[in-house]
Amino acid sequence: MDFLNKILIYPIDKMPFFLIAIVLAFTVHEFSHAYFANKFGDPTAKLLGRVTLNPTVHFDLFGIILLLVAGFGWARPVPVNRDNFERPRLMGAIVSLAGPLSNFVLGVLGALVYAGLIQFDVLGSITNLKLAEAIATTFYFIIIMNFFLCLFNLIPLPPLDGYRILEDVVPREARGKMKQFEQWSLLIFLLILFIPGLREYTITPLYGAAQSMYLSFIKMFMVMFGG
Known about the structure:
By secondary structure, the protein is mainly α. The chain is built from eleven helices and no strands. It is globular. The mean pLDDT is 89.
């Protein structure tokens, strides 16, 4: 148990709640990519069974393990063939944006429900303190992780959504130059992961921003509820 606590990014007793949040966030994220790609005329993801909220089809085992121990991971990317879109660049950008946007919406909805539970003392009325704590912890991770994944995926580095969006909006000449740097993306991510100094300027600020969003939306909704 002590060994697991040393290698995991959260204490072992918090991991079930973290995993619930990650399952939900990754599933909604990848489903959103697949759904809009199919809506815009590309059936690739649908043919592969990716237009579904079944989490098992979206998960990458190594990506999840890395997320648990390093705070950085991924789900199985949804394949998209932009040539099937009527307007490839516009629709491609929307499909790419759909993933991070879905996480933002999920984070906001989670904050709305959690603020309601707090404001109307629903959690306080639960006599089982462990159950009340479990509910609160689950909502905390759902909100934080969805906001974090929204921000993280907007980073303009391949293969993240932010890079794909940028790729679709810049001139064609610039796209050609961008592709020359794609081969270095894995190295960049490894450097970010394993060099503590770099994490302090990349991953850590994103967690801080997600925390600020969490607090801001909770406060806003509590005021809305009359708190």
